[in-house]
Amino acid sequence: MIGKPEDKLLKSVTGLEGGVVATGSTCGVVSGGAIGLALSHYDEIMEKGIPAQAGLLALVGDYVKWFEENFATSFCKERSGVDFYTKLGQLRYFIPGDKVGKCLWHIRGAIRYLYTFRQKELPIMEESSNEIQDRPIHCAQRVLKGIKEHTGVGDDLLEQLSFVFDGGIGLQGGACGALAGAILGVNLVIGMNVRDMKYSEILKAFAVGHKNLLTNKPMEKPEPFHVGKEIVKNFKEEAGTIDCRRITGRKFSDWSDFQAFISSSDKCLGLMEFAKEAASIAIEKCV
User: What pTM, to 2 d.p., does this model score?
Assistant: First the structure.
């Protein structure tokens, strides 16, 4: 649609399916669409910097709100009613077909929305505004930078666009940006290169991944869902939840509100460090 394949970026989002490694948090259609919006406005973001980032974050927030208004919720488990960590849940997702059909219908709707809004003008904040910080903190971005410093694994484009995960995707309280950063970083190494895979290979990888959600056996080789579920499990034990609104106990009104909070939150800064360490350890085991 926008003529930018960006295969490495696509590879990184492998683990966001099913609400972050199929745990039921923010739907992959929502997080994937957020990245898509950022990529659509990449040139403007690079040209205008922080004011454009703030505007894009508001646009992503509008996308999340649109999704919730049209499909009742942006959370995978709430929307599908499926627990992918049980055999019965996985079977119910595919049989008789209404659940997976609903997902395909929502993907269709989201793509139509994104097509319409891909060229929508960003609500740029003025450079002189007191609300804009010279060095804003972005949860996923900080984790990704830490992973790159620790392991050498990284991608500049992914780092630049990962601010869309702030405040649980567009400040809407969904999946924690720090956790998203960890999953994105790991999948730069073990994610799926779908453009280079045959359809049969994609289906096989999908089946293997969902099978690995049901077993605790040691993995024969690094696989996104097997590795990702351990990161999510450990993060949840540390934070008590994987959703921003529950971690912070609030929902953010705008860019300045989020930045004022995150810059003084020892809990969130600690979770960023935890996510960085967890992802770095996982990557070192995989390479």
Answer: 0.94
